[in-house]
Amino acid sequence: MTSLKNLYIKKLLYGGYGFAQLEGKSLMVDYALPGELVEAEVYREKKDYSLAKATNILLPSSSRREAPCPYYGACGGCQLQHMEYGAQLKAKEEMLLETLERIGKLEVRNLESPLQGNEFGYRIKAQFKVFGGRLGFFERRSHKLVDVEECLLLHPSLNRLIPSLRELAKGIKNLREVHVLYSPHEGEFLLKLFCDEDIRKEKLRKLIERLLPEKVVGVGFYREGKVYSLGRNFTFLSISPYKYRVSMDSFLQVNYLLWERFIECAVPEGKYERTLELHCGIGFFSLFLARTSGFLTAYDNNRPALRDAEYNARINAVGNVSFECRISSEALKKHAGEVIDLLFLDPPRSGLSGGEASLILKNKPKVVVYVSCEPTTLARDLKVLVKGGYKLVSLRLVDNFPNTYHIETIAQLRLE
C-alpha cells in the first residue's frame, strides 16, 4: 500500500468518503472528515482517482467523535459513526445539493427542514451474513465476515434475537444469509433463510422449535427463490390510524421511528381528483394518498406486496383505491392521455427506468412527488423533468439511515 501524508480533506462525498487532491489526482478517503489533515493508505488505484483509508488524524474536525460501536471500522454497515449526528445531517444536505447540481444541473437555494429521528435503534429489518456457522456483517468492500454481538442501528428486540440466530446458523449447513423483519407493534419476527443446499421441512421445523423463541412466527426457506415456508407468512404493524399486513417477501421502510412523519411530509397537501402511484408496495403511502384523492390507482410488480396492499385497503375500509400488478413504464403507457392531478413515485435505487421520465412528460400530471433513496438517480431524473416543464417546488432530506451515507429525499414538482 502507498502511504500518504498531510492530506487535506476538502469535503464529504456521497458514499461517506472524504475528498482530497494530491498532485492533480483525486482521492476518496474512508473515515476522514471535511477540514481534517490526515495520513492515509491507498488500497485501490483507479484511472481517475484513488481509494484510501485514513490511518492517522493529524488535525481532527470539531465534528469528529469516538464511534459508539465497537465494530466500527471493521463492519461495513456504517460509514459515518465517527461524525457527530448533527454534522452528519448537515453533510448529507450538502451531499444532496452537490449531487443535484453536478448531475442534474439544478441549483436548489432552500431545503425544507430535514426529517430526523433517533440515530440508533431505528431498524426493524436486518440482513445477517453467515459463513461457517458464524453470523454477522461483511467488512466494507469485502466478503470477509465480522462477527457481531449487537448492532446499534437495530431495534433492541432484534439484537436480543442474535444469540438464537447464531445457534441456528451453526445447525444449518451452507446457510448464507438470514433476513429478519420485526414488528414493534406485535412483538414478533419473520425470518428468511438463504441456503446453498436444500433442507427438509421436518428437520428445519425441529431446529426452529429447539433454537428459536415463540415470537418467531414464520420462517421462509430460499434457494434460488422461495422453496417453502413454515408458520405464518406475515405480521402486522400500525401507522395511525391504519393497520398494515406485511408479508416476508414485501418491501417495507426500515426506520419505524419516522414512519408517520415520513408519510406526513411526503403526501402533499390539497385535494386531487385523480392520483396515480407507482411502486406502491404494501400501500405504505397509498392509504394516506387515498384520503386526499377522489380516486387512486396504484401499481407495483411485486405480487406479494400487492396482495398485502389490497388486504390493507380492505381491512381499513379504504374503498377509493385500486391496485394492479404492472411495471411502472407499462402503467404510465396505460394512462397516456388521461388527466392525472397527482403522480406519486417511490422507485428503487435505480430510479425511473429507461423512458419513464419521457412518458411522464407526455402525460403531464399537474403535481409529481418523487420519493428517492438514491441522490444520483434522483438528480438524473429531475434534470429531465425540469427541462420538460416542471418546477422543483420543494425538497426535503429524510434521514432514514443515520450513521450511514444513504440519503432519502422527498421532491415535489409542479407543471409550470
Task: Explain what you see.
25% of the residues lie in helices and 35% in strands. The chain has 416 residues and is an alpha/beta fold. It folds into 3 domains: 2-64, Nucleic acid-binding proteins (OB fold (Dihydrolipoamide Acetyltransferase, E2P), Beta Barrel), CATH 2.40.50; 100-117 and 255-415, Vaccinia Virus protein VP39 (Rossmann fold), CATH 3.40.50; 125-235, Beta Barrel (OB fold (Dihydrolipoamide Acetyltransferase, E2P)). The strands form 4 sheets. It has a 7-stranded mixed sheet. The protein has a 7-stranded mixed sheet with strand order 18-17-16-19-20-22-21, sandwiched between helices. A 6-stranded mixed sheet has the order 1-5-6-4-3-2. A hairpin with a 3-residue loop joins strand 2 (11-13) and strand 3 (17-22). Helix 1 packs across helix 9 (375-387) and helix 7 packs parallel to helix 8 (356-363).
What value does the Rg take, in angstroms?
23 Å
Number of helices: 9
Major sheet summary line = 7 strands, mixed
End-to-end separation in angstroms reads 54 Å
| CATH architecture assignment name of the largest domain | 3-Layer(aba) Sandwich
What would you call the structural class? alpha/beta
Which topology of the largest domain does CATH recognise? Rossmann fold
Summarize the structure.
This protein has 416 residues and is an alpha/beta fold. The chain is built from 9 helices and 22 strands. A 7-stranded mixed sheet has the order 9-8-7-10-11-12-13. Strands 18-17-16-19-20-22-21 form a 7-stranded mixed sheet, with helices on both faces. Strands 1-5-6-4-3-2 form a 6-stranded mixed sheet.
